[in-house]
Structure of Phosphoglucosamine mutase:
Amino acid sequence: MVSLPSKAESLSRFSSRSQHWEALPLPESALFGTDGIRGKAGDLLTAPLAMQIGYWAGQVLGSGNRAPIVIGQDSRNSSNMLAMALSAGLTAAGLEVWDLGLCPTPVVAHLTHYSEAIGGVMISASHNPPEDNGIKFFNSDGSKLASELQKQIEACLRGERKIASISSQWGQHFHRSELIEQYIQAIQQPLMAELAQPFAGLKVVLDLAWGAATRSAADVFRSLGADVTVLHGQPDGDRINVNCGSTHLNLLKAAVKEQGADVGFAFDGDADRVLAVDSQGRTVDGDYILYLWGKHLLAAGQLPGATIVATVMSNLGFERAWEKLGGQLIRASVGDQYVHADMIKHGAALGGEQSGHILCPQHSVSGDGLLTALHLASLIQQSGGNLAELVDRSFKTYPQLLRNVRVEDRTQRLNWHHNAAVQDAISEAEAAMGDRGRILVRASGTEPVIRVMVEAESSDLVEHWTERLVATVQQHLT
């Protein structure tokens, strides 16, 4: 465990005489992961560290000007602490902070893109448990902060890079929660082109995970005419993501059946992803959402090259069904920034992850759980309100099993691919299955786990090789 200085000691490290911050002790491995900086609040993520992150991010992004930067947060108990510390650092760097308060991550991306802001920051650990938190930066166009800029910020934090000039001007902090309404109007408008209440008669259950979606999701669906039942609908920092939301669907499935609803939607803690449940209680994951939305866009002539960008996690059943429609499925590495990069490279208009993180640049500048839910609801309404029939007519998934093996040692986890025993076990499994299946082993970029995924034509193959691989990872990495 990294031992960080006390708050008083850390705060004393800014010298008004020399106008610089000294570096705090940090983990040897990279601070920025696949989705910003993430860790346990009070352990890795402390107020002193957050203040320095804000200060150096302000120096790298703002170059001493007084341009605004947008900040949002989820409902975790530590989010207020981190927001205030970040704001202190950003204003010390001369930036103007627009604090949105509680809001989904895509709100930050949207308002950053459509304002004069030089960047955005979201404080959230997404689907992680309440004790975790994270700091995620956005470019001025609403995309995830470029890796080169992340490296510059981290180099400053580690004392490896010096800023040529330090601003002597102080920025200001403003509460701007009223700006969230601009985002709400933007995502509703395309759906109201023909009808003021396009979801009239549609019965929807929303699981808001005690998180960021509690600020707006239910009101948006109701304003469009839907009959809405809400689960976990208040912000609660002690219970965010706990046995609810997009990682725990059982309560939503039960509620959809009990209410006789047409569809259920489950968001994660920061509402940048969503999973659905049909009237039979079946999970409709990101693969199905991409297939259904992609088919709709293809018919409308709005899907260039009939191309969808998914990830290495996407099911083979989805890929082969999409190819039967004449489409092309491109697989990117796991992480929405990799999906986004491949979408730009191939000119794709739709992409996303099995986890429900969907990107559609025609409608949003980032992955957006609420926007995705609205467009899937629109497809359901247009089809007569029956998501189950849409799913039945789409594709059958190949048996797939994903197991998480907890590996607390960060260095061991990130360097798993150098372990000969694990590599030998993977090679053995791949040789045995041939073209009847596939294997994916990777270190999570957001949690202290190694993910082991096996997919094959039969459940027996999946279970056999998953157990073998998980046992090998446990024996040699934990």
About this structure: The longest helix spans residues 459-477. Residues 182 and 358 are 21 Å apart (CA to CA).
